[in-house]
Amino acid sequence: MGGLRGATVMGDLVIRAAAQEYSGFFDLLYFAESTIGDWGFEDRTLTVEVQGVFLFGNHPLNAEGHGPHAGWFVFEGVTSSKRTLIECIGDPVKPDGFKAPREEVDDIDYGLPGLPKESREYGFEGYLTVPLGWVDWVVVAGSFKFVVDPLARKAAQLGM
């Protein structure tokens, strides 16, 4: 990751400097109605842009409202990443149907540094913007953090 005028750059993804990080608490997130945008790998770190994330229970972000929230899921020490995609056919607002589900498995270079001593499975789902459709995503990683973008969160709460 490198710096760019108050932002963190990871591949083509830009994370604003004002973002707040919440490590752990994955089990207190609700994302079935979320939108999943850009995503990318850098070494063993997977960053996934998300919008429309809600919170359960004692998540520390609940002090600012249960949602919707927007930002990035950041998985570090990734050892496995698999997506099941169901793409829309035609117009996503009124699709002509859906393609058969297909799996995409990311190649993880086990020679990369940062192999975690312990890891766990993280499963999430949502509406994928590219390609348009539904995705169920399972990541095995050493750690997780939700990096919340306060500007995107405000826009999501206002329905923008």
β-strand amount: over 45%
- Please report the number of helical segments: 1
Helix content: under 10%
Strand segment count: 13
**Class by helix and strand content?**
mainly beta
- Summed over residues and divided by their number, the pLDDT gives a mean of 80
Distance between the termini: 29 Å
Largest sheet: 10 strands, mixed
From the alpha carbons, calculate the radius of gyration and give it in angstroms. 16 Å
Protein described:
By secondary structure, this protein is mostly beta strands. 5% of the residues lie in helices and 49% in strands. It is built from 1 helix and 13 strands. Strands 4, 5, 6, 7, 8, 9, 10, 11, 12 and 13 form a 10-stranded mixed beta sheet that branches. The chain has a 3-stranded antiparallel beta sheet with strand order 1-2-3, with no helix packed on it. Strand 11 (120-128) and strand 12 form a beta hairpin. The longest helix is centred in the last third of the chain and has 8 residues, at 150-157. Mean pLDDT is 80; it is low at 1-15.
Features:
160 residues, mainly beta, ten-stranded mixed β-sheet, three-stranded antiparallel β-sheet, 1 helix, 49% strand, disordered N terminus
Fold topology:
Layout: E1 2-3, E2 7-10, E3 13-16, E4 20-23, E5 29-30, E6 35-42, E7 45-55, E8 69-76, E9 80-87, E10 102-105, E11 120-128, E12 133-141, E13 143-148, H1 150-157
Parallel strand pairs: 6-11
Antiparallel strand pairs: 1-2, 2-3, 4-13, 5-7, 6-7, 7-8, 8-13, 9-10, 9-12, 11-12
